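Exam revision sheet. Question 4 asks you to relate a sequence to its structure. Input first:
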Amino acid sequence: METKAKLKHVRTSPRKARLVADLIRERKVGRALDILHFTNKLAARIIEKLLKSAIANAQENNKVDDVDSLVISKITVDEGPTWKRQKPRARGMSSAILKRTSHITIVLEERDSKPKKTKKAISKDVKGR
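Answer key, structure tokens:
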């Protein structure tokens, strides 16, 4: 089952948030929370809260028993509306200040916690290599 959590109009630029999102893409939820907790970026705190919300959605709506089987299958950081401000400059002029916002979406997917053994892996186990 897939579970989504969205956060819109986040007051951080998409470029900075994508740096953090790339760290946790395709990782298990427990490992991703550890990475986000120890990442020294503002976007890491925001994405950590969103990930906890997605986990709560999975437990409540989809009745997921084992949280450790959840994997971040997709995380996207899209550009939101830009806030435009003006800063006074010399000789009565002004310059534009663009305050970027972003929309963050996390999709969790339940996968088996044990990896499947292939024929190659089984033959290596038998041979003892």
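Marking note for examiners. The beta strands are 2-10, 70-79, 83-88, 94-99, 102-110.
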